[in-house]
Write a structure and sequence with these properties.
Layout: H1 6-22, E1 29-34, E2 37-43, H2 46-49, H3 56-68, E3 76-82, H4 86-95, E4 99-104, H5 111-115, E5 126-129, H6 133-148
Helix pairs in contact: 1-6, 3-4
Catalytic activity: adenosine(34) in tRNA + H2O + H(+) = inosine(34) in tRNA + NH4(+)
Organism: Ilyomonas limi
InterPro entries: CMP_dCMP_dom, Cytidine_deaminase-like, tRNA_aden_deaminase
C-alpha cells in the first residue's frame, strides 16, 4: 500500500477538530498513525471532562498506547491541527513519538512561544508544520470569533 500524504491524515485530524467545535470545545483534533493506518483519534474534551489536561494530543497518545499495548510510540506520527502546547510536548516527549505534524501555529499557547529555540520533543522526533495551515487556522478563528459575539 502506498503511503498517504500528510494532507490526507491532517484531514482526519480536522474532522476531529470539527467534532470539538460542535461540542463547544476549542477545536483541536489529532490522529496517530502507524504504518499508514490511523490507530487513534481524539479531540479536545477539556470542557466535557472538566480536565485541563484533556487536550486532543494527550487523549490520542493515551488511546494509541492502549491500542498497541505499549508506552512508547517511536514508529508513530501524531497529526494535530494546532501547534502543541508545552504540556502536550511533554506527553509527546515521554511517549517517544516518532513524528509530529501540525497545521497552524499558536502564538499565544504553542510550545514555540515558551521554549523559543529549545527542542521540547524527544531527540529522535521529527517535526513538520504548516500542513493544511489555512483550514486549521480558519477553524480556530471561526470558533473564537463566535465566542466574542
Amino acid at each position: 500500500m502506498l503511503p498517504h500524504s500528510h494532507e490526507f491524515f491532517m484531514q482526519y485530524a480536522l474532522r476531529e477538530a470539527h467534532n470539538a467545535y460542535e461540542k463547544d470545545e476549542v477545536p483541536v483534533g489529532a490522529v496517530i498513525v502507524i504504518n499508514n493506518k490511523i490507530i487513534a483519534r481524539a479531540h479536545n474534551q477539556v470542557e466535557l471532562l472538566k480536565d485541563p489536561t484533556a487536550h486532543a494530543e494527550i487523549l490520542a497518545i493515551t488511546s494509541a498506547c492502549n491500542a498497541i499495548g505499549a508506552k512508547y510510540l517511536p514508529g508513530a506520527t501524531l497529526y494535530v491541527t494546532v501547534e502543541p502546547c508545552l504540556m502536550c510536548c511533554g506527553a509527546a516527549y515521554w511517549s517517544k513519538i516518532g513524528g509530529i505534524v501540525y497545521g497552524t501555529g499558536d502564538d499565544k499557547n504553542g510550545y514555540k512561544h515558551i521554549t523559543q529555540d529549545q527542542w521540547p520533543f524527544h531527540p529522535k522526533t521529527t517535526l513538520t508544520n504548516g500542513v493544511l495551515e489555512h483550514e486549521c487556522a480558519q477553524l480556530m478563528k471561526d470558533f473564537f470569533r463566535a465566542k466574542r459575539r
